[in-house]
Design goal:
There is one protein chain. With 421 residues, this protein is of the alpha+beta class. The protein folds into 3 domains: 160 residues, no CATH class; 58 residues, Roll (SH3 type barrels); 145 residues, no CATH class. The protein contains 18 helices and 8 strands. The strands form 2 sheets. The chain has a 5-stranded antiparallel β-sheet with strand order 4-3-2-1-5. Helix 2 runs antiparallel to helix 5, helix 5 packs antiparallel against helix 6 and helix 6 runs antiparallel to helix 8. The radius of gyration is 41 Å and the shape is rod-shaped.
Length: 421
């Protein structure tokens, strides 16, 4: 500044004009220096850093560049230059230093915020992030960063110790608790969810209270985002997963088997003992030939041992069509490639009802994906419905219009025959 003033005085300028022009020249010089430093930082230093990052084999530094951490850090350079040149303007030195310091604090907050985003993105690149998500903790750290940064920024502008402002916040603790109630509850819930491994990103969960039925796609401080199977998004408060019940299908997916539990209804009027002709036909069925041979031998030995009177089919032990049908289904499922053979496989009768005798299949598919599971289940029951008449059984269903029309036709045909007689 003194050099500029001396040069202006040597050029013949008076004192007031020298003061103003020297200040303008110094401001332009500082502005030019800031622009030049900013250009050097971004065009030279940043490009060199980016080239170094791209050329190495590490992936985490690429994420830092993508989050523009270094770009935001470069904003500190002009502020530092302005702060260092503040003594050149003694009258405004204090104001310039405060504003420069406030800008540097704000830029530091932005840099740290971007650095946290980069850290979260780096963490998400590891498989453990699905088991132990940290997005909620990062959000808590951001809240703390913004609060502390705001206090330091205000204290820098008013020239007070930050501890004085922090001591005054004690009186506002109740208000802060009310404002950040959801965040505090979400933080506690996030810790419990993570420590107990209750839910992960990618889990299929069901929560009827919130109409949620789909995959977890994000876990934040306050909410758990679920993409339902109809592609809608349900936002569930994090603490609701602690206070309310929900179903997590992860263990089913990890087990490698998905349960099939469905019944068919047998018309009880079609159930009866097997005749010799039926048994001969059943022996032609691949899955039943060995079973029938062993079973008939066992029944014959039992009846002979106990001197059973064979003149009545009621006496002794006999094969029934529904029993043979049940064994056929079991053998069919045992040999089916889509059924998990290391898990429970049962074909059982349930209590008879007015809709017939329920014959329930309880098994597990070897493919847990939804499409494959539904296709397998449909194929199995298609086959069962189709082969039931082979065993002399009828599947129960309530009368339909077709049944009523067929009865009318039968009645009309019977009437015509009676008139002819």
């Amino acid at each position: 500044m003194n050099f500029i003033r001396n040069q202006l005085e040597n050029a013949g300028m008076t004192d007031p004009m020298t003061f103003y022009i020297s200040n303008v020249i110094m401001i332009l010089f500082i502005a030019l220096l800031c622009i030049l430093a900013n250009l050097i930082t971004k065009k030279v230093v940043l490009n060199a850093v980016i080239r170094i990052v791209k050329s190495n084999r590490y992936h985490w530094d690429d994420i830092i560049v993508e989050k523009r951490v270094f770009h935001k850090l470069s904003h500190l350079v002009p502020a530092i230059i302005i702060y260092l040149f503040a003594p050149v303007f003694p009258v405004y030195q204090s104001l310039i230093e405060k504003l420069s310091a406030a800008y540097m604090i704000l830029a530091t907050i932005v840099v740290l915020n971007a650095l946290m985003d980069a850290f979260e993105a780096i963490y998400r690149s590891f498989e453990i992030s699905k088991i132990r998500p940290i997005k909620g903790y990062i959000q808590v750290m951001k809240i703390v960063l913004f609060i502390i940064g705001g206090i330091v920024l205000i204290s820098s502008l008013i020239g007070q110790n930050p501890l004085i402002i922090l001591s005054g916040l004690g009186a506002l603790s109740a208000v802060l608790m009310l404002i950040f109630k959801d965040s505090i509850l979400g933080l506690v819930a996030g810790i419990q969810l993570s420590s107990n491994d209750m839910v992960r990103v990618g889990d299929w969960i069901e929560m009827p209270n919130y109409n949620a039925d789909g995959d977890v796609i994000d876990i934040t401080l306050n909410t758990v985002k679920v993409m339902n199977f109809d592609k809608t998004i349900t936002m569930i408060p994090s603490y609701a997963l602690i206070s309310d019940s929900f179903r997590n299908w992860r263990s089913m997916q990890l087990s490698g088997g998905r349960r099939i539990k469905r019944s068919i209804r047998i018309d009880t009027s079609s159930i009866g003992f097997c005749t010799d002709e039926m048994i001969e036909e059943f022996k032609k069925i691949h899955y039943l030939s060995d079973y029938l041979t062993n079973r008939l031998t066992e029944i014959e030995e039992y009846n002979l041992k106990h001197n059973i009177n064979r003149e009545s089919r009621v006496n002794g032990r006999q094969l029934t069509n529904v029993g043979v049908f049940r064994e056929y289904i079991r053998q069919y499922l045992t040999h089916h490639p889509g059924i998990h053979q290391d898990m429970t496989l049962i074909v059982r009768q349930l209590a008879p009802e007015e809709t017939g005798l329920p014959l329930e299949i309880y098994a597990f598919s070897s493919d847990t994906s939804w499409v494959a599971y539904e296709s397998l289940q449909a194929d199995i029951f298609d086959h069962i419905f189709a082969v039931a008449p082979t065993f002399g059984l009828r599947i129960f269903q309530n009368p339909t219009g077709y049944d009523i029309a067929r009865l009318k036709e039968s009645a009309a045909a019977a009437g015509v025959e009676a008139e002819n007689v």
